[in-house]
Amino acid sequence: MKTKLLFIIAAIALVISTVAVKPAMAFFTDTIQTQGGFKISVGDGTPEIDEKVEDLTKKITIKNTGDYPIFVRAKAIYPDNCTVTLTVTEGWSDGGDGYYYYANPIAPGESTPVDTPLTLAITRKVGDTGTFNVIIVQEATKVAYDENGNVIWDAVAISQSNYNLGQ
Amino acid sequence: MIKLNLRKKGLMGICLALALCIVGVGAQCLKAAERVDLSKPVKITAEVDNADGSTFATKYQGTVTIKLYKVAKMSETGDLTLAEGFENSGVNLAVLGNKPTVDTIKSEIVSKAVTASANATEVKTLTINRGEGESRAIAPLSEAGLYLYVPEDATDDRYLYEFTPYVILAPESTYITTGEGSDEWNYNVTFKLKASDTPRIGKLKIVKTLKNYNVNLGDASFVYEVKAVLDGKEVINNVYKLDFTAQEFANSHTAERLLDVEFPATAVVTVKETYSGASYKPVDGKDTVTDITIVADETKEAAFENESNGNLIVGGIAAENVFVDDEDGNPVWQDNSPR
User: Fold this and answer.
1) How would DSSP label each residue in B36-48?
2) Average pLDDT score over residue span B224-249
3) Strands B188-193 and B42-48
4) Between the CA of residue A58 and those of A120, B33, B316, B329, B332, what are the distances in Å?
5) CATH number, domain B42-199, options 3.20.20.70, 3.30.365.10, 2.60.40.10, 3.40.190.10
6) Is the peptide bond before B171 cis (omega within 30 degrees of 0)?
7) How far is B60 from B153, CA to CA, in rounded Å?
8) Residue in B211, B215, B223 closest to A77 by CB
């Protein structure tokens, strides 16, 4: 009898765990093969960049146009006859890996603060002339939460370093 | 019929510039000590001055072709009469007696003669093969007169050489051309070829192919560093983005961008993918295309292939900011035109 009860409990537990796992697995592994590509249902919000240039200083804000909170970072790519340096503003930091990171997650529909934009000073090398481009790329990744819905800073850190969900 | 008004030495003579060497001598009457010997053959020599240091003289190794047209016949007294094919050309020989400037000669004689030459037959065609070391070509002619010479444009890998047509008297005298010196007729006349040189250009197109495309992450931008070297000197050094959309992937798995840049012909270009998209990587790690030699009037390609790297970083379309020089040579932001 006791053994039979144990089996029943185990079976119930197995059913519960299977049911509980399935949505999470679906959340991370729902894929569709489409013309050689694959679709992942983790949110399709594209970070939208807004820039202003004042006297060779770029001021950048990034907006979350998706459905999930995201962390954002940006990168400046430019030819080697000019330099781009960060003017430190609240929330933004140089990650030392070529990217500038915003510390806080951005909620859907929100932007990084307008009054403390990512501020980059552009300088062309003395003696150089001619047209040059500075390209700003923006990236975002979904924020990871713990089981209580709080931002897990460690997870955020992992996200920031690996940018792989579920790891 | 226009008299060249040959007077005795001591008076101003009519001047016709040789090639682009202009002498603005007042055109008054000069009566030569002797009449033109119409039985004497004349020679016109086209010459490249190897010492003038021009790009044409020092670098061009092809063939130059020059057509000669007789615009006017000369009588033994020096009178000029428009020749066959030029009677209705509008060429105004009368200006030769009025201290003509170069611009006047060009507008009243040369340009009209050139137009008429399209329907006229050249009396001689000269060729100078620079690759064979030639620097002159000689046209023996049977008649004295005023001749139009029309050198044809020439090209090599790097330059377009353009010449200015002009007129030359054959025979001429030092006094006529310089306003001083001997008025003895010279039946062997020479003009020097001079050309402006315009660098030829080519184009470069970046072509991106994606093996797979993460639809859920949306459009992506890739960034390329482009450097061009000519004669050992870097002439272009810039970065450009290429945007890739879902539609482009659906159509052909390929996107491309023709750079709005004039690359000097024969420059050697290196293209490096410095940003491979938020969640993509170069196939087999190939992120650089080297030794692309630009060919004039052609478009060369630098092709790259990427694939998803499995990451879930959402990128989107990057912003390409263009900075140009203002009138003081300082860089100013021109626009921010994401493509």
Assistant:
1) --TTS-EEEEEEE
2) 91
3) parallel
4) 5, 80, 19, 20, 12
5) 2.60.40.10
6) yes
7) 12
8) B223
Residues of B in contact with A51 (CB under 8 A): 319, 321, 336
Give me the phi and psi of A42, to 5 degrees please.
-120, 15
Tokens (6 digits) for A161: 């370093």
Residues 6+ apart with CB under 8 A from B199: B158, B159, B264, B265
Q: Which residue of B has its CA nearest to A79?
A: B238
Cβ–Cβ under 8 Å, residues B204 and B302: yes
ipTM, 2 dp: 0.73
pLDDT in tens, A57-113: 888 888 888 888 888 888 999 998 899 999 888 999 998 888 899 989 899 889 999
The residues in B 196-255 lying below 8 A from A, measured between CB atoms, are 211-219, 221, 223, 225, 237-241, 249-250, 253
What pTM was computed for the model? 0.74
Considering chain B, tell me which residue range(s) the CATH 2.60.40.10 domain(s) occupy: 42-199, 201-320
Closest-CA distance, B235 to chain A, in angstroms, reads 10
Per-residue buried b or exposed e for A127-149, using 16+ beta carbons within 10 Å of the residue's own CB:
eeebebbbbbbbbbbbbbeeeee
A26: closest CA of chain B, how far (Å): 15
CB contact under 8 A, A131 and B215: no
Nearest to B312 among A47, A48, A163 (CB): A163
Q: How far is it, in rounded angstroms, from Cα B189 to Cα B124?
A: 15
**Which helix (H) or strand (E) element contains residue B98?**
none
Tell me, yes or no, if A117 comes closer than 8 A to chain B by beta carbon. no
At A149, is the pLDDT very low, low, confident or very high (cuts 50, 70, 90)? low
- Spell out the alpha helix ranges (H) of A30-109: none
Q: Measured between CA atoms, how close is A154 to chain B, in angstroms? A: 18
Give the CATH number of domain B201-320: 2.60.40.10
How far away is chain B from the Cα of A153, in angstroms, using its nearest Cα? 18
